[in-house]
Amino acid sequence: MSVRSRGMLLIVALLVLGVALLAGMGLMTSQVSNYRGVHSAEDSAMAVCLAQAGLEDARLKLERDPLFPPHGDGNLVEPDTGSKPQEQSLFTYSEDLFLDNKRVGCYRVSVDSSFAPGYQFIRVTSNGLVGPTESPSAQRVLRVDLDISIAPGRSQSTFQPIKIEDLSGL
Q1: 54 by DSSP, 3-state: which?
Q2: Rg, the chain, Cα only
Q3: Number of domains comprising the chain
Q4: pLDDT tens-digit profile of 102-143?
């Protein structure tokens, strides 16, 4: 075998290795993208579950505690006159959720009772956040209108959902 053919063989071998290296890098990049997509879908599903947990928590608090949500202490005043006491119609709270002593995420719940007097429903909005509160990896917002009318033969409302909306814009 001549020196010239050995040099040509070396160049062909380097080209084949280069193509194999590029193909391997492309496959690896594809797998990383797939992993990120799966992880993102998992976080999004967890955020929905957290938002649903917030809705159910609020519904149970409404059902079990007749004083929930607190309506304020009458210290709020009407903006137009500055004198009449005004009740608080929007109440917001949040709870962190832990799994094996590690914070998974939280839900933030807003209970709006301003619709109660005229329309007989309470609007509950729940925001499920996965990861740190400052920069969550996933977030979902659900809103439900709960019927507060008392059915015939019952002594209190069962807070059944009238309408459920996903406000996340997915």
Answers
A1: helix
A2: 29
A3: 1
A4: 999 999 999 998 887 788 889 999 999 999 888 899 999 999
Output the CA torsion 9→10→13→17 (10° steps): -170
List C-alpha distances in Å: 24 to 17, 27, 28, 31, 94. Answer: 10, 5, 6, 11, 47
CA distances from 154 to 58, 150, 157 (A): 21, 6, 7
The order of strands in the sheet holding 161-166 is: 90-99, 102-112, 121-130, 138-147, 161-166
The answer to whether 87 touches 70, Cβ cutoff 8 Å, is: no
Range of the domain at 122: 3-166
pTM of the model: 0.71
Residues belonging to the chain: 170
